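Quick one, T. Sequence first:
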Amino acid sequence: MTAALRRQRARNLPGDFIFPSRAGTVRSAANVRRQLRKARKHVAIIDGKPDGPAELIEWVTPHSLRQTVGTTVADEYGPDVAAEQLGNTREVLERHYRQRRSAAPDVTSALDVLAPVRSV
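Structure tokens:
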């Protein structure tokens, strides 16, 4: 999803939004849903090649777009900034919009102080 959002941003559409209306203003969620339904019926052609089967975007909803924005902004700038961007509280961001990592970072070296490995 992040790559698709970057491609959309690179299009330099009017306004300061990823998915602006024709006038460069905010799109309503209803219009976004309608356009997503329409997009699911077609395969996108990028640089003359199919972007993949239409089923690849079956899961994309306004909510999943908000989750992507919330997670990306929170990872880069912190959860308070992400909550502000979405117009929510930090608690709402963490509960509904920020995607949880599937793997924890490798903290082995920090935990080695608890039980150091000794060479024999």
